[in-house]
Amino acid sequence: MYVFTYSTNAFLLKIVDFRYLGDTIRPKRKRYIPIVLSKKEVNKIFKHLEYPYDLLTKLLYGCGLRLNEGITLRVHNFNFDEGILTVRGKGEKTRTVPLPDSIMADLKSHLERVKNLHESDLKNYYNGVFLPNALDKKYRNAAKEFVWQWFFPAKELTYAPATKEQKRYHLHDVFSIFENRPSNSAGLRGFAPFNCRRKVINRINGSLGGLIT
After folding, report:
1. CA dihedral 68, 127, 149, 42 (to 10 degrees)
2. 148, 74 contact by CB (below 8 A)
3. What residue numbers bound the domain in which 19 lies?
4. Which one, 16, 30, 79, 151, has the greatest CB density within 10 A?
5. Which secondary structure element, helix H or strand E, spans residue 85, and what is its range?
C-alpha cells in the first residue's frame, strides 16, 4: 500500500500506471481543534490590560471584530442611540453588529476623551486624520471633522513628508496588548499572541455581557 500527497498524485498520474501499484490511499488532514479559554481566564486577561487597550480588546471580543477592524474604527461608525456599530471589513463589505451593553458607558466616556483630544489638536495646527480613497482631496475639511476621527487614535501626531502636514493615525502599537506580559500576569503563560482572538471568542457566549462578570 502506498500513500501519496495530492501534488504527488497529480504528477505521477502523468508518468505511472497505478494499476501496478495496488491500493493507494490519500493522507488525511488533521482536524483543527480550537483552544478555548474559559470565562475566568478571559476576565483575568482583561484585568491586566491598560487603557485604552482594555477597551479595544473588550470591543473586539464583544462584537466579534478582527484586530484591524477594531483599530480602524472612526467616530461615525458608532450609533449609541441605536446601540449599533457599523464595521467595514474585508472586501470593503459593511456589516452592523450590536454594541455590548456592558461597556456602553466606557465607550461613551472614551468618546469624550477623543473629542477633547480633537479639540486640542485643532488649536495646535492640526491637519486632520488620514482618510481613505483620497477623500481629503475631494472634501477639503473632512479630515478635520469630528465624525471622521479615529475612535482609537494614536498617542502622537504623525508627520506626512509628502504634504508636510501633522496628522493623526490610529493606534499602531496594538500588538503590545497581546504580548506575554498581560497573559503571564494573569497566570496564562504560553498564551500565543496572534491566536488571542481565536482562542477567546470561540464558544464563549459571543457577547461581552457573557464574558465579564
Report:
1. 40
2. yes
3. 1-31
4. 151
5. strand 84-88
Q: How far are the Cα atoms of 64, 135, 149, 167, 174 from residue 122, in angstroms, in the given order?
A: 33, 19, 12, 11, 25
Using one digit for the tens of pLDDT, what is the confidence trace for 80-131?
999 999 998 777 789 999 999 999 999 999 999 999 999 999 988 788 888 8
Residues 188 and 133 in one domain: yes
DSSP 17: -
36: alpha, beta or left, given left = phi > 0 and alpha = psi -120 to 50?
beta
CATH of the domain at 164: 1.10.443
Q: At what angle do helices 39-47 and 53-63 cross, to 10 degrees?
A: 150
Quote the pTM value: 0.69
Q: Which three cell numbers stand for residue 74?
A: 472612526
- What is d(CA 168, CA 144) in angstroms, rounded to the nearest whole number? 10
Same domain, 192 and 131: yes
Q: Within this chain, do residues 20 and 119 fall inside the same structural domain, yes or no?
A: no
Report which of 108, 63, 103, 44 is spatially closest to residue 81, judged by C-alpha positions: 108
